[in-house]
Automatic annotation (TrEMBL):
Pathway: Amino-acid biosynthesis; L-arginine biosynthesis; N(2)-acetyl-L-ornithine from L-glutamate: step 2/4. It comes from Chitinivorax tropicus. This is Acetylglutamate kinase. The lineage of its organism: Bacteria, Pseudomonadati, Pseudomonadota, Betaproteobacteria, Chitinivorax. It holds the Pfam family AA_kinase. Belongs to the acetylglutamate kinase family. ArgB subfamily.
Amino acid sequence: MTINPNSARDKASILIEAMPYIRRFYDKTIVIKYGGNAMTDDHLKNCFAQDVVMLKLVGMNPVVVHGGGPQINDLLTRVGKQGEFIQGMRVTDRETMDIVEMVLGGLVNKEIVNLINQHGGRAVGLTGKDGGFIRAKKMFLKSEEHNEQIDIGQVGEVTEIDPELVALLDTRDFIPVIAPIGVGDNGEAYNINADLVAGKLAETLKAEKLVLLTNTPGVLDKQGNLLTGLTESKIHALVKDGTISGGMLPKLASCLDAVRNGVNTVQIIDGRVEHALLLEILTDAGVGTLIRAEATPPII
Ligand SMILES: Nc1ncnc2c1ncn2[C@@H]1O[C@H](COP(=O)(O)OP(=O)(O)O)[C@@H](O)[C@H]1O
Ligand SMILES: CC(=O)N[C@@H](CCC(=O)OP(=O)(O)O)C(=O)O
């Protein structure tokens, strides 16, 4: 059927289509990871902010965790430094850490907060230092060949998230917008991959859904076809044969952690599509890659 958006009947049917989704997600927490690669142009950023406000207005509790990898790279280049990644994690020396905090906790966080507020929401920006709510410790990577530890500087892994601050904001209908910076036992700042924070936060908040917006249609096979219904064993096979690499590695690791720990649905979607978030949550047209627990039957 072709939908004519000018016809009253078709407009109504689009709205009615949203009803089961609104019912399902009403009063539920939805953690949204907004990747730096999906923050490409102003129009898309405005669409994203409108979608978040819409979800809040229909009674859901959206919590935004944002990245900003490309935006950090831009500032590093301006100060004459080159960004370096190992296994999808930025090598973070002290100077880089300062830039990460400036970009994530400052520029990117406040831009998203401002956009949501301009569209009628009430967003509040946080980093893990606020209320000390994201605790972290130093992360070491394992070298694939020699099983040795690789030190990548001030990069952290989440040890604990205190859900109270987010819950408090929720009671007053604020929308939390969270930058992935954690705080260590001695007050030191850690640069944490935003996917890892989003996954852990979804678990801690017992979110109904985790949605990750990025710059691909989802997880693709070697021919570029979209894959969905991915389970742990399928993901391991795709990592082993080199289909999955770079930034997709931490993304899928945190998706798997989230489904293992009680988040009902985890979906990677294309943030370059206008209103991708709204389409994913409120319509039958949601696309992208669904990640599911091994034993769960496919949702559709
Ligand atoms: N199998 C795959 N399917 C899709 N993307 C992949 C795959 N393997 C690696 N990637 C890379 O992962 C990137 C997404 O991760 P990342 O750059 O960290 O995005 P974000 O900033 O949204 O977190 C894609 O742009 C792509 O370059
Ligand atoms: C340790 C680490 O790699 N941290 C990331 C944090 C930002 C991020 O994750 O941004 P995206 O979601 O846009 O990739 C970084 O420094 O780029």
